[in-house]
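2024-03-11 09:14:02 DEBUG pipeline.ingest accepted 1 chain
2024-03-11 09:14:02 DEBUG pipeline.ingest length=312
2024-03-11 09:14:03 DEBUG pipeline.predict start
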Amino acid sequence: MPEPALKTTDLTKEYRGRPAVRDLSFQVLPGEVYALVGPNGAGKTTVIRLVSGLAFPSSGEVRLLGGNPHTDPRVRARLGAMVEAPAAFYPYLSGRANLELQARLAGGVSADRITEVLNLMELSQAAERKVGVYSLGMRQRLGVAAAIMTRPHMLILDEPASGMDPLSLHLVHRVLRDAAREGAAVLISTHHLEEVVSYCNRVGIMEAGALIDEVDLARRGRRYRARVSDVHGAVVALQVQPFVAEAFARGDEVVFTVTDQERLGRVSVVLGAADIELLELTPDVFNLRAYYYERMAGSRRAPVEGGEPVSL
């Protein structure tokens, strides 16, 4: 496993003696998109501010790209961030002029790269218009363009989808996936639970400043369910396969997770060799929204001590 691009240990932030974030420990790896979700007031934006170096923790530690974002400017130079929606720009300057100003501050950003990110976020036709006339969604897209402009190693976005229409959401999802595919670590906070499932690797669920659960969506995306002629026999046959991470019975079906999608075709071969008929095979779709509300309800019935997450 690669070294984490971001790692927090027992991160705590208090305001006037009241904890906004408490004992929060999690990590984000290069090449993955990690989403923090939770209700308003859960502490998501505070976490974003802490890990990006905009706020100092009361206790605990943040390691970002091998350094401390609060004291090491070299770390900040490799970070792209958009904190607190809507993204802030000079309203009397054009979209392009705002990016040019940020490019001069960052150094090493060419005019061609500015044009490229404007095109990526489909803002080229509005590039010369003053940001003051931009819609909320357009300002958010410009914020994403500014964040990715330097090709950062770590990308941190607070509610990047706020105020966006479906087209804008699609653009942001694509940009985040592409950034992760190129090796960047991506951390976002969001309320868009349905969309998260389609492009995030892991989700951290926050409540009252604590991380109460962590869901591995990449692993769940490799989970399938099958109707077979012999459920118990299928479980036994699949559990011993090196390309199957888990297999268990659920009612009259067998549910299993493959380590490699390309090996999925081997399932029918394995079952056939055990004289088990495969009747139906479908993805075991994970309902993050239902799971989220279930965890929220459980957390409010029994508050989490210490904020220790349960990995799924």
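2024-03-11 09:14:41 DEBUG pipeline.report The chain is about 35% helix and 25% strand.
2024-03-11 09:14:41 DEBUG pipeline.predict end
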